[in-house]
Amino acid sequence: MATVSELYQARVTSGQLEADPAQRGVLPAMDRVVRDLAMAAPAAPAQPAKSGWLSRLIGGGGAAPAAPAPKGLYLWGGVGRGKSMLMDLIMDAAATPQKRRVHFHEFMQEIQAGLNAARQRGDADAVRPVAQGVARQTRLLCFDEMQITDIADAMIVGRLFQVLLEEGVTIVTTSNRVPEDLYKNGLNRQLFLPFIQLIRDRMDVVELASATDHRQDRTEGGQVWFSPVDSIAQGQMGKLWREETGPAPATPLVLEVKGRKVELPQHVGRVARASFWDLCGKPLGPADYLAVAEAVDVLFLDNIPRLSQSNFNEAKRFVTLIDALYEAKVRLIASGADDPERLYAEGEGAFEFERTASRLREMRDADWGKS
Ligand SMILES: Nc1ncnc2c1ncn2[C@@H]1O[C@H](COP(=O)(O)OP(=O)(O)O)[C@@H](O)[C@H]1O
Ligand SMILES: [Mg+2]
């Protein structure tokens, strides 16, 4: 099995990646995780029954305590530096078949659903069985984009990680922020601080301080972002819509999500169209946006306004929507008040928005998308 360093070098040699000294600098920490995982005992199989005096003497029968999980990795740095790409290399290099890479939002959704079920069963400590359920199938858990903005997530993530680690799961995560800045200014933040300590104790915290935003290097293709929202933009959006959908009449797309209905005013097959306000002006959440991203290959999004603190909730939903579309590789064709990087220039949340702007820029590439 190749190490992360070897996989990286092979991609540089083949021209798939440009050599980046800062990326090279974090490879040893990644190799260490993969090596420790390979050396860690696999999840203990049941002991074969032995009847010899020695095994009776040493008192077999009781399960051996789980060995502590190999130390994980918390890789942080600015947008476009290659964090997700490097995480993919860890996934490729890890020998265990019990490895899972999942977007943090999506994982927390799954956990919250599990917690609800456990609470309904009346479990006193609901986090433990849910985390144990995950741990049974997973030795290496990779989260891309850990960010904690939701108080419900903030209040359980410490306990969740604690049980996962106790159960021998190694956690690798990427983030735009240094651990100390997670859930910054969040409600009840003091209850969150032990989680930061847990990260420091149980994960190598490594900064990817590359000078290059690799996303900016990519070339732009056909125009899919129109600003400002004027009659020219509207005309071009309309023209592209007709090109994508043909003469077929559009109908509303109604998705059922957890018993709720999420409606996009128009769709033809897997091409759908909605305005910013249809999708971000209503109290929709990650599950709704994941459902939209799953249902379409191309999304036309009209009228993205300039965002600021005064429409913080809409901005936050927009960030979640773009994350879901990005992960699912949905092609986005949009009209907005300004260029992505100037849509949300200041105020609380402007920092998180940099990543969204970077993703929007990448989604404008000609070769972006699943169709
Ligand atoms: N060394 C590199 N050479 C060429 N392209 C790269 C390199 N590192 C990353 N990329 C590309 O740049 C883009 C951004 O990288 P990504 O891993 O998504 O960054 P991050 O997760 O840090 O925002 C991706 O398309 C990725 O494949
Ligand atoms: Mg990334």
UniProtKB/TrEMBL annotation:
Q: Name one GO cellular component term.
A: cytoplasm
In terms of superkingdom, the source organism counts as Bacteria
The record, for Gene3D superfamilies, names: P-loop containing nucleotide triphosphate hydrolases
Arranged from A to Z, the UniProt key words for this protein are: ATP-binding, Cell cycle, Cell division, Nucleotide-binding
Please provide the Gene Ontology terms (biological process) for this protein: cell division
Per UniProt, what is one Pfam family of this protein? AFG1_ATPase
GO-annotated molecular function: ATP binding; ATP hydrolysis activity
Listed SUPFAM superfamilies: P-loop containing nucleoside triphosphate hydrolases
Q: Which NCBIfam families match?
A: ZapE (NF040713)
> What is the protein name for this chain?
Cell division protein ZapE
Origin species: Paracoccus shanxieyensis
